[in-house]
Structures are given as structure tokens and as C-alpha cells.
Description:
Blueprint: E1 2-8, E2 11-20, E3 27-32, E4 37-40, E5 45-50, E6 55-58, E7 71-76, E8 81-84, E9 88-94, E10 99-112, E11 117-131, E12 137-148, E13 158-162, E14 168-175, E15 185-189, H1 193-208
Amino acid sequence: MIVSCFFVAGCVDRQNWKIRPKGPERLHGLDLVSNDTLLMTGGEINGLNTYNTSAATILGTIPMEPMDAGIRWLDAYDSSTINFSGGSVWTFEGYGSSTINIDGGVIRYLDMKESSIAHLSGGQIQSDIGIWDDTSYVHIYGYGFDYNSSGGIYGDGLLTGYWLGDEAFSISLSNREDVITYDQLVFHIIPEPAAFMFFSLGGLLLRMRPYK
């Protein structure tokens, strides 16, 4: 694994980190603070925490294994942002007013706490989503949603549907304390690809229609 740190001229409180794969070693941990940024394209790390207004972009890690993942603990705090598009995470948590954007990769557990917000438009949640506070929300982008209130791993609900790329998903929900996780989901229905192509073609034909 190669870990690089770049200092931005004229901005002593910002570091730009890059983690990319090389060798079997696992990075023990990394905290991003202030305006730090991270680009991770491979490798392994035990714990990654983002604080303040820092931002991390995860494009890849080692694959998910039966009892391990490329990142074991991935936590967002304060007003930080984590963009997750590839790789694997065992436990992914949001705190404070942080924002988590997920459009790919594999996540074992996703827990949202305090006033954190998550946006899901792709990827896999292998175990469950749990929301601990009624000020936290998870936005789901897709189509063909179906909800079984007694389904899922813990009997707290099972959500199925399709992401925009026609990829089917199945997510177990887990209630936390007095919060019903399903009540904290916000659905954004995106037209399925076939319907989108139909309407696009209809618009094209209208534009091609000659005027009289």
C-alpha cells in the first residue's frame, strides 16, 4: 500500500491524502480534520474518521471477505462528507451533520446517528441499515420499490427495488431504540431505463415532426 500526503500551498490546515494499493500491509488508522481530503483507490485500513469539513472519496479497497473488509470502521463526523463508490466497508456510520454518498461498493452495516444524512443510489448493503435518531435520514434513489414490514434479517423490514442502472437491491432494515428506520427513509423515484428511453424517443419524434 502507498500512502501519500500533499500539503496545499498557502493553506497550512489542509492535507490531501492518497491511498492506493501496493503490498499486503494494512494501514492502522487515519483521521481527516479541518479541510483535509482523501482519495482511496485500493488497499486496506482499520479505521478512517472524517471530522470538521473534511472529505473522503473511496473508489476501491480489497474485496469483502467473510469476516473482514477493506475498511473495518468508516465514520463521518461534524460536517464532513464521505463519497463511497467502490470497495468494501464492514461498519459505516454517520454522526453530527455529516453527509454520506453511496453509489457503489459493498457495505456490511450502515448506521446513521444524530443529524447525519445518507444518499444511496447504488451498491450493496449486506446486513442492514439502522437509523438511531429521528433527525437522521437516508435518501434512496431508484425505482420499483417494495417494502415488507416484517421481512429482513431482524424482522424490522425488508426493502427491495432497483437502482438506476437496473441493478436489483435488497436491504434489511433494523430499528434502533424508539426509531422506526423505515420512517426515516426518503424515496426518490427515478424512471426505469426503458421508460426513460421511451419518453426520450417520444420527445425526439416530436422535435422531428415537420411544421405545416
